[in-house]
Amino acid sequence: MERAPRASYRVAMIALVVITYTAPMDRVEAVADAHRAYLKRLKGEGKVLSSGPFAPRTGGAVLLSIAREEDASAIVAEDPYHLEGVARHEVHLWAPGFGAELLPRARPLDGKTAIVTGASSGIGEATARALAREGARVAVVARRKDRLDALVASIGAQGGLALAIAADVSRDADVGVMIDATVSAFGRLDVLVNNAGVMLLAPVAEAREEDWRRMVELNLLGAMVASKAALPHMKRIGGGHIVTVASVAARVANPSAAAYAATKFGIAAFCESLRREVYKDKIRVTVIEPGLVATELGEHITHPGMKASVAERAAAMTPLAAEDVAAAITYAVTQPAHVNVNEILVRPTDQER
Ligand code: NDP
């Protein structure tokens, strides 16, 4: 078969060095000034073609410099703020004339801080990664600290910033520590994702009351206490967003899911009431209602028959992936400030109810 002739072209590539700082608010200007002086010095040596400060943001500053590709790595290696560990650099290739679309976009959550509970696995872990990719600094919360540490390292390796907080969200004191530690590390709280939860299914007549208590204390009270604790911090900065991962069980009460559905109906009702209390403070409230998601959730069921039946149900369909739900959460929290996405119900295509 004859091949169509290929166009051949060469473009001169130069590198765009993007330097992103994560600095405490009171140091932003000082860091930006020092870096401007540093770039000026390089320019004198002919390394930087142009430079300029981007609007310093709350808690961070972004500066750009354009250099020849071969100079980019030298700039990164020499930058004193990089060496101090407060700066993060990305090198992007840029072809004159083709440049605009290759420039790094300002990310919707740049400068914002999020807490994600239940981030050691499943939906929470995927959500933490997704929010970090959109620019948020993320406090990841759960009981399994080793998992959180690995997640923090992995987000860091992708150029993000995360903080691991070991906490049991069903304990009020731990919730207080979670909020305080986040605000003292990052200076603010913009987004709270109440995701930690357990689903201990059993018919009412065979259920263990201790399982009911665990679900109520975590799925319902844990999310309520965390939401309340977040409010003063969100009001202080003039707005915020509280996202709660409920379930399709917040709408449909199936047999053997009585207590679980009670917690999910309950938290959805709490969120709607909360929304009507705080919308005037520019705090948005979103309830996410996933159908079946492939995660560890079913593994904790204590009733053997129910554990097997959930596994069978999952095997009979293509469930959602944790990343599908993370995408729904990311959609809600990246809308413009005047858009309040109150509810997202997302089922696998295979799932009827
Ligand atoms: P996973 O079991 O994978 O994740 C649950 C998370 O909650 C884990 O990180 C776990 O971490 C954490 N967690 C459990 N108990 C506590 C506690 N006491 N304190 C702090 N963290 C805790 O399941 P999913 O990702 O599926 O579940 C996330 C949410 O999604 C839950 O609220 C669930 O009800 C909801 N959901 C899930 C669906 C599904 O089909 N999977 C469908 C609809 C909703 P650790 O054990 O380390 O503390």
Give a verbal description of the structure:
41% of the residues lie in helices and 19% in strands. The chain contains 10 helices and 11 strands. The model is unreliable at 1-16, 46-66, 82-88 and 90-104 (pLDDT under 50). Helix 6 packs parallel to helix 7 (209-236). It folds into 2 domains: 14-102, Alpha-Beta Plaits, CATH 3.30.70; 113-346, Rossmann fold. The protein is α/β, with parallel strands linked by helices. The chain has helices at residues 28-44, 69-78, 80-84, 122-133, 145-157, 172-186, 209-236, 258-278, 304-315, 322-333; strands at residues 14-21, 48-53, 62-67, 87-94, 113-117, 137-142, 161-166, 191-194, 240-245, 283-290, 343-346. The strands form 2 sheets. It has a 7-stranded parallel sheet, sandwiched between helices. Strands 2-3-1-4 form a 4-stranded antiparallel sheet. The structure holds NADPH dihydro-nicotinamide-adenine-dinucleotide phosphate (NDP).
List the helices and strands and how they pair.
Layout lengths: L13 E8 L6 H17 L3 E6 L8 E6 L1 H10 L1 H5 L2 E8 L18 E5 L4 H12 L3 E6 L2 H13 L3 E6 L5 H15 L4 E4 L14 H28 L3 E6 L12 H21 L4 E8 L13 H12 L6 H12 L9 E4 L7
Helix pairs in contact: 4-10, 6-7, 7-8
The protein binds NADPH dihydro-nicotinamide-adenine-dinucleotide phosphate.
Total number of helices? 10
Oligomer: single chain
Q: Mind telling me the C-alpha Rg?
A: 24 Å
Taken from the alpha-carbon principal axes, the silhouette is globular
Overall helicity: 40-55%
- The CATH class assignment of the largest domain is Alpha Beta
User: Would you identify the CATH architecture of the largest domain?
Assistant: 3-Layer(aba) Sandwich
- Helix-strand sequence: EHEEHHEEHEHEHEHEHEHHE
Estimated share of beta-strand residues: 15-25%
- Mean pLDDT, rounded to whole units? 82
Reported for the largest beta sheet, the result is: 7 strands, parallel
Distance, first to last CA: 52 Å
